[in-house]
Design a protein that fits this description.
623 residues, single chain, 22-stranded antiparallel β-barrel, Maltoporin, Chain A, mainly beta
Length: 623
């Protein structure tokens, strides 16, 4: 870490003198985001580390799933238990899965009945996505529990016009099809995908070949906006995903009969009204329903066949007022109600061999928050405080503060942020039969970071880097009592922390070429046990060529060594992908992509397969 900081200092400091002549950044040109402060604001005026992945970025990459899109974002680590629908985990800045809040159009999709409250994002596609906003750092003051390490908000399309039909087919009997239509005030999208390429589990012995595991996914998305008057409007958005995957029994353990299916439904309705130029308020309600079914039915109905069912829901209501004062200050006041429900059931087939059931449980959280965004000239200060009244764990206060300074003439942006958070145990962690623990305490966290953004030579080169540190206590973990059966229960651990450096470098030597490099380095100085699945070093790079309707992007990913599945060491790996798309005219385009060009044999999770070299071709028609 010290060597990296020293290297950056040596490289950057001499450039600041040159920047007086060669570079100047206009902060008004920076991207606009809504997630960081729950109202529109410029990235340059936020003290947090923010990445925005646009629709154009997604098209250039050729990625089809949210997991594929996120794996190239600094600070984000993605792991999958097998390709094509395998359980997918998201880690942000070295924190656990429970420390990142994932939302779709502002609706939280964290599963109350999931381990760590995690959300399996394997079924979330990006065909209807307008942009993805990733905010790293403490966000509990704005979004409460689960956002102690950051927020990922998937925002779907709403302003597109016309009808679009696209399709792609390729290796492993893979097919993706999308139909969408929009009027400018409404949008509808339907997509379906299928694959049957490889086994989820990776074969490590000379036994009979593992069977191929099929995967199918159907998704529907819709958005409607109605203007009631010049100052008032109604907005409604809905997303539904239905996935079905053949899975296996674990690392390198094949099962030809096990099926894992998920259903995820989210919707949100909101009324917005600007009473005055300086006062806007929003009142809305949202819901999330999640179903996960794990079926393992042997052909001859052996006694070890079983069915496991998990049901979870989040119902929320909010009232938010935004006051704009003197064009330099924006005050946001909000009130929220969140009701989380969940139940689970597992039983044997034939019946009466064994049965395990968690009756439906629920918990209510009442919240109030205050956020202030002050911007005076080149200086911006954002601060917030939130009071959560949890039905089981009482009142908790979270705060955060961030600041940015844009240096005139050079365009240098300095930013710093700090904040606290807490995470209440999930319903599964509290009440699950056999392994739940009603005596668990909430996790608490302290997060802070500092960063700098700089353009060199009028946009020829830009550098964005951040140093961060996350501290957690009362960590909730699964304590394995029997290593043979993995039976155990949830417990509170001690303290842990993660520190790191993340950076993005963008080089534009000519108008038609963009080169991007990013890396993240992590350290866990106070971890008594190995930190699973999170490599210490991750590198990404891409080269984009755009010329007369042709866009070609070459993408590189390197993940360092890491520990998984107890003490198994996974080797570092390199992956190279290519995507090319050509717009014949405004209404028709074709595409080609090749994944894992070098046919690298690697594992993201111990004992699970990843795809080898694969080829795909597609077309898009707009009417």
């Amino acid at each position: 870490m010290k060597r990296i900081i020293l290297l950056l200092t040596v490289v950057l400091c001499p450039q600041f003198f040159l920047l007086q002549v060669f570079s100047k950044t206009d902060s008004d040109d920076s991207q606009i985001v809504i997630t960081a402060s729950r109202s529109w604001n410029s990235v340059a005026k936020e003290g947090k580390s923010i990445t925005v992945v646009t629709e154009e970025d997604i098209k250039n990459s050729g990625k089809k799933t949210l997991a594929d899109v996120l794996e190239s974002v600094p600070g984000v680590i993605i792991t999958r238990n097998g390709a094509d629908g395998g359980l997918t985990n998201v880690y942000l800045r070295g924190g656990s899965r429970a420390n990142v809040l994932i939302m779709v159009d502002g609706v939280r999709i964290s599963d109350p009945m999931g381990i760590d409250k995690k959300c399996d994002i394997s079924g979330i596609g990006v065909s209807s996505v307008e942009r993805v906003e990733i905010v790293r750092g403490a966000m509990s003051s704005m979004y409460g529990a689960d956002a102690s390490g950051g927020v990922i908000n998937i925002i779907t399309k709403g302003a597109a016009k016309g009808v679009s039909l696209s399709g792609e087919a390729g290796s492993g009997r893979t097919f993706n099809g999308v139909l969408s239509a929009g009027t400018g005030s409404s949008f509808f999208s339907f997509s379906h995908s299928y694959a049957n390429a490889i086994s989820k589990a990776k074969q490590k012995s000379g036994e009979a070949p593992f069977d191929k595991d099929a995967y199918s996914n159907t998704a529907v998305s819709g958005r409607v906006k109605a203007d009631i008057s010049e100052t008032a409007s109604l907005n409604f958005v809905m997303n539904y995903t239905d996935s079905r995957a053949d899975i296996d029994d674990g690392p390198s353990k094949d099962d030809p009969n096990r099926i894992y299916s998920t259903k995820l439904f989210t919707s949100k309705g909101e009324f917005s009204h600007s009473l005055f130029d300086w006062w806007t308020y929003r009142a809305g309600a949202s819901c999330m329903f999640s179903e996960r079914d794990d079926h393992d039915l042997a052909d001859d109905l052996e006694p070890n066949s079983y069915v496991s069912l998990f049901r979870g829901s989040n119902m929320s209501a909010e009232l938010i007022s935004v006051f704009s004062l003197f064009n330099i200050d924006r005050v946001t006041i909000g009130f929220e109600l969140l009701n989380e429900k969940g139940s689970s059931e597992s039983y044997s087939v034939p019946p009466n061999m064994w049965d395990s059931k968690t009756e439906e449980k629920s918990v209510l959280t009442r919240s109030a928050f205050l956020h202030n965004a002050l911007s005076i000239g080149v200086w911006s200060l954002n601060s917030g405080v939130r009071l959560d009244s949890h039905e089981l764990f009482g009142s908790h206060t979270s705060w955060d503060a961030s600041s940015s300074v844009s240096v005139p003439f050079t365009g240098t942006v300095f930013r710093v942020s700090a904040g606290t958070g807490f995470r209440a145990p999930s319903l599964d962690e509290l009440y699950a039969v056999d392994y739940g623990n009603k005596d668990l305490k909430p996790e608490e966290s302290l997060t802070y970071d500092a960063g700098i953004y700089q353009e060199f030579f009028k946009g020829f080169l830009s550098v964005d880097c951040s140093l961060f540190r996350n501290k957690y206590k009362n960590i909730i973990y699964y304590d394995i009592k029997d290593p043979n059966t993995f039976e155990g229960m949830y417990e509170n651990g001690g303290k842990t922390s993660s520190t790191g450096l993340e950076a993005t470098v963008i080089l534009k030597p000519v108008d038609f070429l963009t080169l991007t490099y990013g890396f993240t380095t992590l350290r866990f100085p106070h971890s008594a046990a190995p930190v699973l699945k999170r490599p210490r070093n991750t590198h990404t790079a891409s080269a984009l060529v755009s010329f007369r309707g042709l866009n070609v992007m070459l993408m590189y990913l390197h993940a360092g060594a890491r520990i998984d599945y107890g003490t198994q060491r996974l080797a570092p790996y390199h992956k190279l992908d290519l995507n090319a798309r050509y717009s014949v005219n405004e209404n028709f385009g074709i595409s080609f992509r090749c994944l894992n060009i070098t046919d690298a044999d690697y594992e993201e999770s111990y004992g699970y397969n990843t795809r080898g070299r694969s080829f795909y071709g597609g077309a898009e028609l707009k009417i």
